[in-house]
Design goal:
The chain is built from two helices and four strands; from the N terminus they run ααββββ. The protein has one domain (3-87). A hairpin with a 4-residue loop joins strand 2 (69-73) and strand 3 (78-82). It has 91 residues and is an alpha+beta fold. Strands 1-4 form a two-stranded antiparallel ribbon. Strands 2-3 form a two-stranded antiparallel ribbon. The protein has helices spanning 3-11, 15-58; strands at residues 64-66, 69-73, 78-82, 85-87. It starts with a helix and ends with a strand.
Length: 91
């Protein structure tokens, strides 16, 4: 089991190995940061589209969903919707 840490230590002991390890770590951190920024920018739009698509699919287009505001608390696991209306067409 000591083979992998020994190889990693040996690979990063050179200047070129350190640069590669630094670039790999920087890339991973940038990808995580970009994912977090994307989620914060588009989370309401993603949830809104998913809710509307699910209502359309499950009711076969009979009902539509209307609401005033949407609040999401990821830490507590809460989704709050104000003035939710499930509207059906009157013929």
């Amino acid at each position: 089991m000591q083979i992998l840490p020994d190889k990693l230590k040996k690979a990063t002991s050179t200047g070129k190995g350190r640069i590669i390890a630094f670039l790999a770590l920087t890339f991973i951190l940038a990808a995580i940061g970009g994912g977090i920024m994307y989620w914060n920018a588009y989370k309401k739009q993603i949830i809104r589209n998913k809710l509307q698509d699910t209502i359309q699919e499950k009711t076969r287009g009979l009902y539509t969903l209307h609401y005033d505001s949407l609040r999401l608390d990821e830490v507590a696991g809460n989704l709050s919707v104000s003035n939710l209306k499930l509207v059906y067409p009157s013929f």
